[in-house]
Amino acid sequence: MMQAPRRATVRGPTFIRTLARLTAADLPQPTRSLSDQLSHWIDWTHAVALSTVLDRPAAALDDERIDSAAEADECARVRASLTGAIVGDAAFAAPPPTSGQADADEGPDYAFFRQRYLFLQQTMEAGVGRLRDRLRLKLSAQSADLARLADVDAVMERALSRRERSLLSVAPVLLAEHFERLRQNARAGSDEARVPGEAPAAAGEAWPDVFRKDMQDVLLAELDVRLQPAEGLLAALATNPHG
């Protein structure tokens, strides 16, 4: 008996692995290092700005005491707030009862889920952006090295924001393919509404519920990725001897 070929293991953040799990095709492994990728993503204007920040003489700073524990609490609050916005979104609310069997078989329209995904992406971008601004302000009041780090982070955010939006915009596209695959499998009477290698849906679990759970998992994993720069700034702030 012939066996289906095994899919290559995808390495990387949970966000990438979650999307790969929901995708029918194998995702290619990266062939460039991170530094090589950055050299292609940062244009000359941002490269000049970054060089200026790194070469600028350190300025004298006031000895302001920063409570790093308070900033850690703020980071936790932002994460909890954005997590709550995702989990409590209308996309994951119980659907209204259908008027007939035809409606139940057809299921929801993906356009609604796409609109909610884009809205939550905007919510995450705004919330994390404000958090990074706050942490950079705190770092700028500390040592010259930490102030320079804050400036570098600001330049990198401006340099990579458009590329980040472009890459993250792929998520709702892949989810659209997953949505249609689940619906088509349900119409065909399949009890395995996921790609090969995944566990089938639990007994009695409708395919829209499977999709809602998968979409929520992707959003929560994306939130983790978006928060990583802020967590790096927080870690730097925690090394400050005055915190």
TrEMBL record:
Q: What's the domain of life for this entry?
A: Bacteria
Q: What InterPro entries does the entry give?
A: DUF3348 (IPR021783)
Q: What is this protein called?
A: DUF3348 domain-containing protein
